[in-house]
Hints:
By secondary structure, the chain is mainly beta. It is built from three helices and 33 strands.
Amino acid sequence: MNSIGHCFQQGLLVSLLSLAAVATAGAAPLVSTAADQQSVSLTIYNANLGLVKDLRQVKIPQGASELRFMDVAAQIIPASVRIGSTSAAAGFRVLEQNYEYDLLSPQKLMDKFVGKEVRLYEKNPYTEREEQVSAILLANNGAPIFKIGNDITFGHPGRLLFPGVPDDLIAKPTLVWLLENRADGSQDLEASYLTDGITWRADYVLTLDRGGRKADLAGWVTIDNKSGATYRNARLKLVAGTVNRVSDDMARGRMYKMAMAEAAAAPQFKEEGFFEYHLYTLQRPSTVKDNQTKQISLLSADAIPVRRELVVSGEPAYAGGRQGGEAGVRQKVGVYLEIENRQEHRLGMPLPKGTVRVYQGDADGSLQFAGEDAIDHTPRDEKIRLRLGDAFDVTATRRQTSWKKLASDTYEAGWEIVVRNHKQEEATVRVVETLTGDWQVLESTPAYRKSDAGTIEFLLTVPKDGEARVAYLVKSRY
């Protein structure tokens, strides 16, 4: 046998002897709680996922020992856990890792004491004193069954007292490691793991001026923590982007290695590129409590140029078959806002996906809700387009003016779209028509613009209390 194999066998023998020594000695396990915590880092993803790095100072004796690492997230992903010593890494080894989640509850406590002696306390109705009786808990299937002396009973009204808590029941989820340590004294241990149950989103408030040409934008980060742990004075990072996840826990452990490759960390958040995502680092510690929804300011920008647009959108069904009705079909006129995420517009930071809520002041100066829309992740120098609702004073009517079958697969159809403006100022309306098949516009008033292979657009200026119309003739082959 070569020297490498001999050393491996020796190391394995030492580990096995250490394990046996711990088992036979019955030494009390080491316990580490949040009180030992030196620092905690929390990276939150959009995908209901968090990465926790928990650094604690723990006194570990030489040799083999069991460490119970408590106060971890209840929704921890066990396969993603990693622990290491940052102060004495060379002499620190993890021999075994367990995740204990057999949590203490009345049902489980009673199950553990089946066949054992317990005490029952009940109040004597004559003396008003509590009296104690010893009993054997025979079963706990639906209701406890006791043996008191030679009698068997159930439904006993007394309080049930247990002599202690079984070692295999714990009060909260706990990581348990069997360690081998060559250094003596306190060590800095860092446990890193992924947890479900924590996510974040962006919420934006866009406040229009009276003219609707400028707006102030405020962005907020909303964190929702249901992971089962509190992260005190955490170094907080947020990842914007779609991170792939699979259902298998072992594969999640592989994903953890990618998540650990964070970029290093001034407004409240500093933004930087990370992998194919964007990372936002809070420039101060923050406490994220369990079952807490927390909001932190992300950005603020004033006097952003805004473009408002009214749009009438056609549908593919209109392009082919015969449509009846002289009065035509009423259509909604959509109201859109568009802003550009540019530095010269006092923006320019990649914006995480979220909901934009729009407000505008009325004649009294009071802000009124004007609508909302969702945006996707928006890089810098890209446009943000919001659909807020439908116009009240601008209406549209669509009518088919002609239809002819030229061949078995070829049709000719004429269309008219009339837009009426009941406002006290003129309105600009974009009419968007969707065409199908192999099409050709034979006539149009006004001139159209082809925006893609199946879409043409018309731009109308509609006078106040007036109307404007689009008329076109199209030949389509299917």
